[in-house]
Design a protein that fits this description.
single chain, alpha+beta, six-stranded mixed sheet, 7 helices
């Protein structure tokens, strides 16, 4: 097992703290004034967090929510009566151009869309960078995958949403080249919901985000209903009506084009489509959807903040004398809408993620030798016959169909070496067995051997090697 606790260290540090981790590795001239990162936000009140500022302004675009005055909502276009506000991020106008914090350090995840498979430039896919693997983090990870050809399963953890993600990321399931790989993905991701307790397993392409939160019930998506039942799982997995089980025999079920979004340049498709690894991603953590309507509202977030968190992540609005703007209020969420909290809740979340991660590890292919009884053909002549086969006792093939097609995974190899005084009459010492499906056995390979001295003893040393399913001897 290769564990990378934090893949994108600079991006994660900036995301979690609101401040750059040292120098910005990718300075950008956001306001196109010839200067880079010259107007970032600042922690004006010294509480350790950069949040928001609000100031009463008759021409402002914001107003207080009628449900909770801590929440700011957009002013309606024809609204003229009431108190309105202009909103800023916390800080000052460093470059004195009338805009606040408009040319800041980079706090995005630098590697998330910078992988080579299906890469697109930033104008088409935000976060893609200038070219694939521009980021040293991405390049190092891809080089590591290329150098370690024995890796069978790849999993990258993200946040947020409590979702298990699989390929494809830029097209429907009908684009999937290989039926066996798709079926194993469907089974494994549905089972991952069972182990994690999460609510949705989907291809990235079919995933609908908060724009249509209740739309994640396509035939290609396994999801958990209000009663906790997993729907759209492959046929026979759960004792539920057949109408709620996925039928792989009908290709029409694979072509669901009312998708959520494209995710170009993802790690997921790079690991699967380039290296042939069984690759998954996930979205850890989701704030409580108290009314189970598929959306987490600001009111629900505040309820969670007020009732369940030991260290609230909302800073109540408080007055501050701004050096330029004058009287303002500072406050708001000190963590973004999708970032996880600290402490026990994160530990609990990791436990759920670890349960399904360990389940995935049990799917790994594993070769085991089966050597039949030695059959005496002619003892006086020292002739014996032995049948040898190889089992794959893992659920995954010894190579995904994609890996086999790419020829990046070598065939399973059987090697038979006679000891001194033993002669192989029929059968090769080095046999290419091809690839073995999950929970399957290869054809038997038969050997006829002869003891050169029928009165003596001898051995056949038998071993099997698989690039991604280990060894046995």
């Amino acid at each position: 097992l290769y564990l990378v606790p934090r893949l994108d260290m600079d991006g994660a540090e900036a995301y979690l703290t609101g401040a750059p981790a040292g120098d910005d590795p990718n300075p950008v001239d956001n306001d196109r004034d010839g200067l880079f990162d010259e107007d970032p936000p600042q922690d004006l009140d010294g509480d350790g967090f950069i949040v928001q500022m609000r100031q009463v302004d008759p021409l402002g675009d914001w107003k207080l929510s009628s449900e909770d005055p801590r929440i700011m909502v957009r002013r309606i276009a024809d609204e003229t009566e009431g108190t309105f506000y202009t909103m800023y991020t916390e800080g000052i106008d460093d470059d004195e151009d009338g805009e606040y914090n408009e040319d800041s350090f980079n706090n995005r995840f630098l590697s998330n869309r910078n992988y080579p498979q299906n890469w697109r430039p930033g104008v088409q896919q935000g976060g893609g960078g200038t070219y694939p693997m521009e980021e040293s983090t991405t390049s190092a990870e891809v080089d590591f995958l290329a150098a370690n050809e024995h890796i069978a399963i790849y999993l990258q953890h993200h946040c947020c949403g409590r979702i298990i993600l699989r390929p494809p990321t830029t097209g429907p399931d009908s684009d999937f080249r290989f039926r066996n790989d798709l079926e194993v993905y469907q089974v494994a991701t549905a089972r991952a919901l069972e182990h994690s307790g999460w609510n949705l397993a989907t291809s990235v392409y079919d995933w609908d985000t908060a724009r249509r939160p209740r739309a994640n019930t396509k035939r290609t998506q396994a999801y958990r209903d209000k009663d906790g039942n997993i729907r759209n799982a492959p046929y026979g997995m759960y004792p539920i009506p057949e109408s709620n089980q996925f039928d792989f025999s009908d290709p029409a079920n694979w072509d669901q084009r009312d998708r959520g979004y494209f995710a170009y340049g993802s790690s997921l498709e790079t690991a699967y489509l380039i290296f042939g690894m069984f690759a998954l991603a996930d979205e850890h953590w989701r704030e409580p959807d108290y009314n189970w309507d598929g959306m987490v509202t600001e009111i629900e977030r505040l309820r969670w903040n007020d009732e369940e968190l030991e260290n609230p992540i909302f800073i109540d609005w408080h007055e501050f004398d701004h050096p330029v703007l004058g009287e303002v209020e500072i406050g708001g969420w000190k963590r973004t809408k999708v970032s996880p909290p600290e402490g026990e809740l994160v530990e609990r979340e990791c436990e759920a993620g670890n349960r399904y991660t360990l389940y995935l590890a049990t799917l790994a292919p594993k070769v085991e030798l089966t050597v039949g009884d030695v059959e005496v053909v002619d003892q006086s002549a020292g002739l014996y016959q032995v049948d040898i086969s190889v089992k794959n006792v893992g659920a995954l093939r010894t190579a995904t169909e994609q890996g086999e097609w790419l020829r990046v995974v070598k065939p399973v190899r059987l090697e038979v070496a006679p000891s001194a005084g033993v002669e192989i009459l029929t059968g090769e010492t080095d046999v290419d067995l091809g690839h073995i499906n999950g929970m399957s056995e290869s054809d038997k390979t038969t050997y006829l051997v002869r003891l050169t001295d029928p009165a003596s003893a001898g051995n056949l040393n038998v071993s099997v090697w698989s690039q991604r399913a280990g060894r046995d001897s």
